[in-house]
């Protein structure tokens, strides 16, 4: 609870008037009433009653759209809608801490090293940009170097984590005994992300922003926009960079690498965020859980070599009829083993490359099948990459 909230509970507290031009100006009753109308009546009610006092200037159209989409009925213990059969989350209220004061905060159960004194660490500040300046590494390379050198702990706070190379580095670090803690923005976290981050030595939690509740029982929760990587309690990489492919290759970013006594502030901040975060359920057992510790090829994710079967596996199929015109051995039915194509593209090519010579051997259907094959291999039916 902030100092202003504590003081508001004191009947004898005196608040000095603050003008809008003052840096300390934060709370506006007019803005609060307008936001309540937005939550209760939507954009129409907000714009129709905002009046000339505000002219709707304190919220941009994008903010109005986001708040409208995020608005929900007030609930004491919100449960995420992204997963099915989830574990019950801990009660959490960002504005009234006594609501869960009897519940101990989550512990760093994977281990947390003791912080060394600031005298043992050299204070330094370095700024890196993306795209990088001359003779400086890209931000992605810089982060991966620190992750691969970690020996004690890795603590990450970010809104998104989908970069395959970074996920591979985290799995490698966890496999060599380095505890990995990750806090993600609750709204932008999907089940696939959680499954790809599953590891016995990796703990993933989610956290939202601050909440605003209206008197009519409507509420809105903001976003968690903190972004920093804490490595071995020695180095902090802090900035606007998200751990995604797009940030590595498309967007402009700026990060600061900090060492020394300032790391203690990020250590404390991570503990605060971790205590306020909520757990995510253990991912369902799908082929995502079989991702290797180090992802060397993106195709291993998009086109797994062993696809999951929806039905029961046929272990002893019946023998093909002996009088069939088709060459079953050439089609792979009579071969010793059955291999699944590496990708849908290879499967598409293999089927017709195998069938085409066999169909030509059938004398009664030679002309018809040849016409069909030529028509099928026209540009209309070619794979997308070949059409391009």
UniProtKB/TrEMBL annotation:
SUPFAM superfamilies: Phospholipase D/nuclease (SSF56024). Residues 18-279 form the Scaffolding anchor of CK1 domain. This is Scaffolding anchor of CK1 domain-containing protein. One of its GO terms (biological process) is signal transduction. It comes from Knipowitschia caucasica (Caucasian dwarf goby). GO terms for molecular function: protein kinase binding. Belongs to the FAM83 family. The lineage of its organism: Eukaryota, Metazoa, Chordata, Craniata, Vertebrata.
